Structure formats: C-alpha cells, structure tokens
Amino acid sequence: MSSHAVDRLVLIPDEIDLARSPLAGHLDAETYVLGAFNPALTMLPNGNLLMMVRIAEALRTPIRDGHVHAIRWNAGGYRLDAWPLETVNTADPRKFSIPGGGWDIMALTSLSWLLPVELTPDGLEVVAIHYDRAIAPGHSVQCYGVEDARISRVDGRYLMTTCSVSPERHSTTLYTSDDAVDWQFEGIVLDHQNKDMLIFEGLIDDRYWAQTRPLGALYFAYPPGSQWRAGPSINLATSPDALHWKPHLSPGIRPHAGTVATARMGGGAPPILTPDGWLTLWHGVEPKEIVGIYRTYWSLLDRDDPTRILRTDHQPLLEPAPALTAPIEHQMYVRDVVFTTGIVDAGDHYVVASGEADLACRITHIPKTAFRSD
C-alpha cells in the first residue's frame, strides 16, 4: 500500500474512445487499448495540468489465417503486415520476434500514439481529452509508433521528447510548442536507441542539458570491487539550441553494485530545479521473471554541475501498487511496474505522473519533505 496521502489512477484504458483514434477507419481489424500509460506531465498556461498519454492500440486478434500481423503507418495511412507463423516467435502477445538475422529483430502487434489529457491543477480530475490534438506517426521514422513523451518547460517554451520506432532506427524525436497545445515536429535529435531523453527544466550557463540513456548489447566491466555495476546508465548531454546534442564527457547516474534494483535503470521525470539542486526521478529495475520490478528512485544533482550527485536514496520513492489496479485486474498483462514520467511543482508538494503496469496513468502527491536530508 502506498504511504502517500494522494495516490490514484486518473486514466484507464476503458476511458479511451477509439472511435476518435488516429487509426479509426484505416484498418480492417478490431483494435483495443492495450494501455493508456507513461504520461508526460506539464502545467498549461491556464493553470491546469496536461498529460501527454501513450495509447498503445493493439490488434484484438493479431494471429489469424496462419499469420501474425503488425500495424504500420505508411504514407498517411495505416496498414497490416502479415508474417507467416512458421517464421516468427509469438511467445509474447505484445510483439513477435523474427529469428535468423544474426541480431534481435521484432515487430509489434500494437501501435502507440500520444493523447493530450487535460487535468485539474491538482492532477486528480480529467477536464478534457483532446482527441483533435493527438500526435500520431507522420514520418517513416515513426511507422511503428510514437512512444513515451516527456515534457520540459524551458524559458516559457515547451520541449517534448518522444521515442519514434521504425525499421529505420529507434530514435529520439523532438516536438516544441509555445502553449503545449499546438506542437511542431522538429525531427530526430538522438540517432541511436535511447528510450529516456529528459531535458532539464532550465538552462545552465545558457546551455540546455539533458539526461539520456543509450542502449546496447555489450557493456564493459568495471574493475573488481567497484561501487558501480556495468549496464545501462543515465548519461548527460548539452546543447546550444535543444536540437543539436553533444554527449557530456563525465558520467551521470550509474547503477550501484550494492543494489539489484539498478540492474537496469533509466530516466523518469525531467529534472526540475529546487533550492537544493536539480531533483531527478528515475527508475531502477530488480530482476524478476521476464520484465522485472520497476520502482521509482530519486537523486539530487548540483545546480551548476549536474555530474555531481549531492544526494540519492536507495529506498524507492514509488513502488508498484497492485491495489490501484485491482479494479482493472482483467486487463493486466504485466505486473510490478511503476514508470514515472512527469513532475510538476505544486507548492508544498509535487504532482508526480507515472504509468502503472503499462496499463493506466497514476498521479501521486509527494511532499517536498520526502527529498530532504536527515
């Protein structure tokens, strides 16, 4: 059970109207909402909050007629690609793998798009769902979907990073806006597999900073006895304009050898500036079965040099909450996952947005006292 006074689901799959989906009318197949989750969070000029929610729209029956099907955007529309069952592995209902290429190749039985959902200032009630402002694939680099937005507000301008998925590349793309309503596509900003690019909500020495998390299949070992564990880590990059990024030489947040909760890790909410430094929320994963246990942790970074970690806590800030998803138990397909993706300052507390179980949107109010040193 959560220790936070306010902790609830504010959006679940059944509340999404697929008749207003960007895919509606394009496919000769029934779809459903596999998940409405991993919401970016920001404050609108009118004081309300905005979640940019990832909608994973999946085929109800991906396997039929001896084939498994994938959804793909193509030249302004959507189509189904059929793969003979004998050529693929369909053990995971969300995707299928295509063996024999010498490296991992997969395709999805769902396609993700982004849905703006306006909330009250406390983040607890839905004001409006803006289907007319949905962000869907519009370029070949996004043909398998647009995933996991993060929104930062820097000098009055909104910057939204997204993960764009295609056979061409698994890249980070950027959208910008003056009001968080009308978004302009700015193209690719990271040309490698990177699921968690988070732009700091403020400049440091007139430069943009970001956390990144590049992935690979090979990691070199730290020496015996090191406090660090080899594997994915949260790196840093800088930019003069938020479009052209250079990796920073010094490391960012690395997995600690002393805890299995950072066997895999990555950025969560965009870092925000506090009187004590940059507050960053990130996820650490404890190995368990296929997916693992995702929890949210926090660190405080130096305001002038974010490579300096001032404080961190190995005790989780947020745990997966089965009690919250109990009413939608029949829709569960993964467990033990809370994936934090947004934070807004609300005075004496923070409003924190997370994806719960890759299924729904969770809002938690966390008092600022939770981040003070003893």
UniProtKB/TrEMBL annotation:
Keywords, ordered alphabetically: Glycosidase, Glycosyltransferase, Hydrolase, Transferase
Residue intervals passing through the bilayer: none
Record has tRNA-binding as a keyword: no
Pfam families assigned to the protein according to its UniProt record, in alphabetical order: Glyco_hydro_130
GO MF term list: hydrolase activity, acting on glycosyl bonds
Domain of life: Bacteria
Key word Transport present: no
Family statement: Belongs to the glycosyl hydrolase 130 family.
Protein name according to UniProt: Glycosidase
Source species taxonomy: Bacteria, Pseudomonadati, Pseudomonadota, Alphaproteobacteria, Sphingomonadales
